[in-house]
Inverse folding.
């Protein structure tokens, strides 16, 4: 049963595999027919608009995005839960919608509060 | 110009020829015999016209066009054909290539330029082929200290993820690569792969511009994923299914954009952001961070990422069509086939050959594909248009747009859908 359910998705994986198998030769052919001139010390440096790069390439980069990542983790899962409700809505009795309204209110209120806090503390 | 080697000897030449023939025969036998065994014993051969199709029978039938058609028809129902050619990779890549060309010509017209003009004599029609040849013959330069396996794999994975997205899109009734019950959730799952591939490619390059661009791409895709998911909930509430084919089939009398315009607008804006297109092209902002996360990709690697981007563009436009514009539904404008074609066949040219059952595709499939392609091209046009019209917006404007306005509008859309359902306009007892 579970195997059948998973087996339906095998064509998605097949498509992924076909794209990988069909496109990897493009890189290999390109590697075979393209010129490979001898190297010099500048050639393989990272691109920095003509300057000689200084410092690390992979630095710690402060984007001040942490509250949004937390909000994403919470609300992404909640939004997917809403799909379980939405796809079964036609079979549910109408009284079952009221608790869902409460859930939506909590979700929306929490999101509004988080956005208000992030705006107040200027952590865009 | 090849020249004969100075020390040319006929005997050595014949010896090398025989050598080559020997090796070719050896490898062919070693590969061909297992292949034939696999075909004969492992793969289930189809039954055509009441006969089991053995390789011998297939070879006999290919010689006669009137008996080749059943083989072609049987082949077209297989997964391999669907993945490679029609609703899958070949079709999507064709539309993607057309999109690239149309975009360049259209942008040029918008900006009073000419665009691709010389290659191919007629309005630069061969420009894409020239670009492909250029990209494939350029040297691939990988920066020093890059994480090479990840850096090589990222463009290929990008194309693969875009192709997996394409696999879930139904093009015509019954013509879909993966007809799964949870198709919409599958779409969300596949969309979730793109930020990961982007940040891996950007991180492995060991360069600053790709790193900044990759982080921007990650944040942008992540913050627009919630409005994207919420804006499609209205359609799911009204149809009660997550299967994309059933959603498209449910719009036979009216498309959902009539009742859920707010959701359609929110989905369109998030689509632009997920595709990193202007006005949301911060990850590739060429005037700020050279080319964003594509900076260090050179040659065919860049070409593969471009192909993946446009495959993704086609898939998003097709998803918009399936969810909001009615998918393949439209007036039947393909004329019905005359009955004598199906039964007697047609007469081909001077050599009279009666090929029975020639219409390989049904009328519904041709009509559905026509309407689907027309609508998809229209949506792609509206995705391309902002590039010639709007400037790029700042990242804080982008975030406040995504996190406050679009999510609020997506909630409004959910309540519109619920109201339509409970007021009896739609759903059981209503219009549908």
């Amino acid at each position: 049963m579970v195997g059948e359910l998973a087996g339906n998705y095998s064509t998605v994986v097949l498509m992924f595999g076909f794209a990988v198998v069909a496109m990897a030769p493009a890189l290999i052919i390109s590697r075979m027919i393209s010129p490979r001139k001898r190297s010099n010390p500048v050639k393989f440096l990272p691109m920095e608009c003509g300057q000689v790069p200084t410092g690390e390439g992979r630095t710690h980069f402060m984007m001040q995005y942490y509250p949004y990542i937390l909000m994403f983790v919470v609300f992404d899962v909640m939004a997917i839960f809403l799909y379980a409700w939405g796809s079964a809505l036609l079979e549910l009795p109408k009284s079952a919608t009221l608790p869902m309204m409460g859930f939506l209110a909590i979700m929306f209120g929490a999101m509004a509060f988080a956005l208000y806090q992030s705006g107040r503390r200027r952590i865009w | 110009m090849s020249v004969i080697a100075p020390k040319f000897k006929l005997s050595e030449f014949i010896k090398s020829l025989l050598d080559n023939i020997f090796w070719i025969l050896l490898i062919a036998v070693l590969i061909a015999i297992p292949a034939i065994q696999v075909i004969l014993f492992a793969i289930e051969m189809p039954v055509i016209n009441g006969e089991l199709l053995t390789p011998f029978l297939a070879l006999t039938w290919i010689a006669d066009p009137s008996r080749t058609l059943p083989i072609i028809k049987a082949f077209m129902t297989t997964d391999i054909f669907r993945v490679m050619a029609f609703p899958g990779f070949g079709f999507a890549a064709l539309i993607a290539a057309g999109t690239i060309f149309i975009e360049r010509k259209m942008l040029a017209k918008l900006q009073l330029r000419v665009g691709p003009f010389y290659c191919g004599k007629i309005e630069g029609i061969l420009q894409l082929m020239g670009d492909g040849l250029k990209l494939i013959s350029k040297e691939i330069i990988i920066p020093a200290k890059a994480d090479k396996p990840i850096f090589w794999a990222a463009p290929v994975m990008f194309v693969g993820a875009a192709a997996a997205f394409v696999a879930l899109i139904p093009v015509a009734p019954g013509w879909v690569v993966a007809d799964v019950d949870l198709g919409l959730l599958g779409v969300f799952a596949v969309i979730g792969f793109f930020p990961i591939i982007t940040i891996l490619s950007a991180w492995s390059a060991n360069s600053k511009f790709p790193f900044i661009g990759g982080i921007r791409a990650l944040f942008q895709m992540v913050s627009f994923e919630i409005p994207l998911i919420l804006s499609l909930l209205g359609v799911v509430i009204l149809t009660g299914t997550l299967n994309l084919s059933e959603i498209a089939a449910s719009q036979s009398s009216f498309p959902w954009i009539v009742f859920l315009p707010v959701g359609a607008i929110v989905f369109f804006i998030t689509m632009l952001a997920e595709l990193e297109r202007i006005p949301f092209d911060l990850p590739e902002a060429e005037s700020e961070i050279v080319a964003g996360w594509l900076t260090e990709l050179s040659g065919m690697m860049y070409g593969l990422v471009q192909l993946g981007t446009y495959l993704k563009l086609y898939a998003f436009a097709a998803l918009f069509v399936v969810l909001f514009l009615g998918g393949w539904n439209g007036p039947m404008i393909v004329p019905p086939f005359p009955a004598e074609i199906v039964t007697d066949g047609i007469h081909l040219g001077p050599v009279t050959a009666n090929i029975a059952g020639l219409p390989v595709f049904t009328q519904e499939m041709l009509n559905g594909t026509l309407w689907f392609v027309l609508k998809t091209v229209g949506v792609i046009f509206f995705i391309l248009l902002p590039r010639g019209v709007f400037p790029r917006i700042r990242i804080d404007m982008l975030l406040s747009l995504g996190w406050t306005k679009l999510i609020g509008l997506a909630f409004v859309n959910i309540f519109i859908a619920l109201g339509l359902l409970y007021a009896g306009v739609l759903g059981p007892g209503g219009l549908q």
